[in-house]
Write the structure tokens for this entry.
Amino acid sequence: MPDYILTTSPQMAKRHARHSRFQWYGRLAIAISISFMLLMFTAIFARGTGAFQKTMIAVDVEFTESVIDPKGTRVEMDLKQGNYKPLILSGLQQVVTGATERKDRNRLYKLVSGGAVFDLGERVAAKPDMIGTTQRVWIAASSEVDLYIKGKVDPESDEAVRRLKDQDIAWVKLLQEDGRVKRKFNRVFFTSGDSRAPEMAGILSAALGSFFSLLVCFLIAFPLGILTAVYLEEYAKKNRLTNLIEVNINNLAAVPSIVFGLLGLAVFLNFFNLPRSTPLVGGMVLALMTLPTIIIASRSILRSIPQTTRDAAMGLGASKTQTTFHHVVPLAMPGMLTGTILGMARALGETAPLLMIGMVAFIVDVPKGVTDVATSLPVQIFLWADSPEKGFVELTSAAIMVLLVFLILMNLFAVYLRRRLERRW
Amino acid sequence: MFKKYLLSGIVAVSMVACGNAGNDETETTASSSKAATAATGRDQIKIVGSSTVYPFATTVAENFGRSTSFKTPIVEATGSGGGLKLFCSGLGDNYPDITNASRRIKASEVERCAENGINDIVEVKVGYDGIVVANSTKSDRMELTLRELYLALAKDVPDGKGGLKPNDYVNWSDINPALKNTKIEIMGPPPTSGTRDAFVELAMEGGCQTFDWIKAFKKTDKNTYKAICHAFREDDGFIEAGENDNLIVRKLNANPNALGIFGFGFLDQNGDSVQGSIIDGTPPTFENISDGAYPVSRSLYFYVKKDVVGKVPGITEYLTEFTSVRASGEDGYLSEKGLIPMNAEEHAQWQSQVLALETLSLN
């Protein structure tokens, strides 16, 4: 359309102005939400990246038989529980020569992680030949030393305000000069469960707990949801009863998740006596929560499939069931899967229903199945955020990053499915 | 055609599964076969209860799990009351073996336990906990009485004529001219917190009872007594700062005039930036709390079902670890987490009593 005719009238100029103004509002809105997201991500990443590395201290440990295994039995449990503390301490004292008094020795020992003795125990139990030799072992530093090495403790600040005193920092420097301090990839974070000591805490048990819960959730919610949707959309007659069911399903989708937790507590735990704190019950509760989402998504996909597809199949002599399962459902499957994955992504981030069924708990052991006690990723984030120790700050952010990675993967997969399998008419 | 999509659906499941935890399929099949057997017998101790005792119970549980061949106990923070409710609901695999409590078990709870077949309970005293009213080290240490604390915090205060008036104290000097002339600003935990419960019971009621006519209500009209003594002011004199004590400590540093209410553990960890006020002439120190001289202090307990000893593996060993000198003793590792341990004599007495599995009697 020729532009000059339209711009001549003052009304048209106004209309154009409104048009471009509205575009700018939209851009502004997007810019604001993106900047909030960036702010959140940078805050999390800035705090969390440190957690993927941890400080290790090299100690020359003399594995004296009389200390570790005085009876010489080499029983695995005895080796694991041996008294390794004096061995580590004397190894440290070789470098830090000044610390001989009881008080100093206690402080010196606090430079290494409280879990170091268990770590040594496991190593010796795995290789009993070590007894009698002297070896340089890398031991995890305590959380305070770790924070100092990462530059999160200001040595210039008032000594009284720090947990790591000048004396400790001088000792760490002595160790550093000797090349005994280095930062390594924090493997423990990915391979162990929760701990009260930040340097020993890991995300694995929570991640597996989430995985098992979602597995149970999927196995229950997906078939139930799809079947409900197919029946309601393809078979059921439209009458007052189906209307009532539809209204109820839509209502359930909006019910706060804590309500499902209470339901789980009353039905699954108290009535069916299923084991508390397990992914089995967690998954069942999450399945109740995701079911309405899946049903609604699946029904709208089924509705979007053109009637001509059904008519054509019927016209060729297919039965109602053949039409539905040979033609309609396969065409709708990618959309249904997308709906399911998005529903499950929401379930992954849920804590409130898990609170009621005992999954908000301190759990160290890594779960091996759906009936082992477990927590989930968001619960772990919540528990760490509440801990007084400063080292948990970066762990909290790191756990958020892990959760975000999983969410992004699930959403990308949903997008991929849609792109790959969806048909357009 | 349908089969093809179904197949892609199954691939999708396994991909989501793998992406989620880096787990392979063998483990999931193993888990489903295990599900059938897991219902019989439990090999892991279950602990519920107070969030105040939670840091200590988890620390012991972790050390216990690492240093023995038993599984690490599961610890849930449900609050003292919620924990005892679960604990007394019955015997068996689905009920907790141990419950932590930041107060002593009540007679009504013992009855409830007995109704459900739990007759023998072993009581274990963990140690002490003090609730401190602290401010930043940047300003002077406060010296308060319980009565002044009550007057600063209550919703309605006595008007001096035998009645009540809405709390109109703005500055500390309004309550007592000897106190400093700054605004009353106190940050504390929300009503869901056990620390708040204990503070109400010990400090608020303690201050409240210094007025004889209010104290008289305790016998005659419990509800009125509670309404007077338990209600916090709703203006900006008292600020609910959430369950996170870390946050209170940080806010105190930012505002040197404010006071904060939290557990002694946090004062201990942050003793360099905040200081506890002297209450009724007693500063909140380790010694004063452990001998009961500090008025806002309480004992922490946990309770064990005697019936599970020998049934759930590790109960005796857990009790041994918890009551050992290296854990809850005077220089034990729990004192590093902020527990105020019993003195050696009391500790030894509880230790022998617990290890002999003496059952609780409330008389």
The longest helix of chain B spans residues 2-21. The longest strand of chain B covers residues 121-136.
